[in-house]
Structures are given as C-alpha cells and as structure tokens.
Amino acid sequence: MPSRKTRVLDLSRTKPGSRKDKLKIQFLSSDVLNRKSEDARVRFVLDIVKDGTILVTDGVMAPDEELGLIRETMRRVDDGFPGIEVCSLKKDLPGVQHFFEQVSDQRNKVENLLNKLAGKKPPKIGLKFGMTLIGPSKYIKRIRKDPNSFSVFAGA
To answer: Are 90 and 6 in contact (CB under 8 A)?
Structure first.
C-alpha cells in the first residue's frame, strides 16, 4: 500500500506580509451571530469569508437561511471570490427537546409567512445546536462528512 504524505504547513517560513500559504481560521461564538438579523448575519459571514477566512461557529443555520447565504454568495462571485463551501453538523437533541425544537421550527415558519404577508420584518431566529464551517472554495479542497463528524482538507 502506498504511504500517504502529509504536508505540514510551516507558517514561520513565509515572508512577513506575504499571504502565500497562510490560512486564517476564525472561531466565532453563535452568540455573536444570534444578535444579528438573518440578513445581517448572512452579510457578516460573507464579509469574513470573502476576506479569505475560514469561519467555524458553534451553531447551525436553518435550511432557508443557508439558502439565503448561498444566494448572496452567488451575487458576490467574481474572479477573486469563486464562492464558499459550507459543512454543518446538527446536534440531535434528546426526546422532548427534539419535539420542542420541531414545534419551534414550524412556529417560526408560520411567523415568517405572516410577517411577509403583513409587510413586516421577520423576527430574529437563532442558530440551532451544532457546528458549522464556512470557507472560501479557493481554500477548501475537500470535505468528508459522516453523521457525527466531518474532515476538511484545506490549502492556500
């Protein structure tokens, strides 16, 4: 069986001010994102990722919010920003907590629909329990995911 070479990135060898071979990973509390509206959260995340930073947060976006993130990303794609990669692990909640989360999701969907019909701004909805990685696709080479974990292969 062929041996697998692992490349270790030694940042101490790069010249000061050089962005070559440098990856920036930012770990962000979901509390920071939960204080923002859905639109502001999407803009905030994209501003960080478009700058070349890989963002890891301790929360998971709702599917419609993740769709909004992808839509906004497609609007911002250009030669310097080819897009994003997103990978999430949603934490399964036990019994009654899972039931209440499902009820809460349905309530939020109904509230959003009623607010849109009334022309009102939708209320802030927090991130769900879990973990999300969002990074520029020019750095994220591959993501392997199984139900309980994911591996990310990244490089500059």
So the answer is: no
Q: Is the pTM of this model over 0.85?
A: no
CA-closest candidate to residue 29, choices 49, 55, 58: 58
Strand ranges across the sheet with 84-90: 24-28, 53-60, 128-136, 84-90
Distance CA 87, CA 74 (A): 17
Q: Which domains does the chain have, with CATH numbers?
A: 22-92+127-154 (3.30.110)
- Burial annotation 29-50 (CB, 10 A radius, 16+ → b, else e): ebeebeeeebeebbeebbebbb
Residue 51: strand, helix, or coil: coil
For 67-98, the pLDDT digits (tens) are 999 999 999 999 888 899 998 887 665 566 55
Dist. CA 77–CA 97, nearest whole Å: 39
Do residues 132 and 88 lie in contact, with contact meaning Cβ atoms separated by under 8 Å?
Answer: yes
Tokens of 110: 């109904």
Judge contact between 13 and 41, C-beta under 8 A: no
Tokens read off for 136: 């520029």
Burial 9-24 (b: 16+ CB within 10 A, else e): eeeeeeeeeeeeeebe
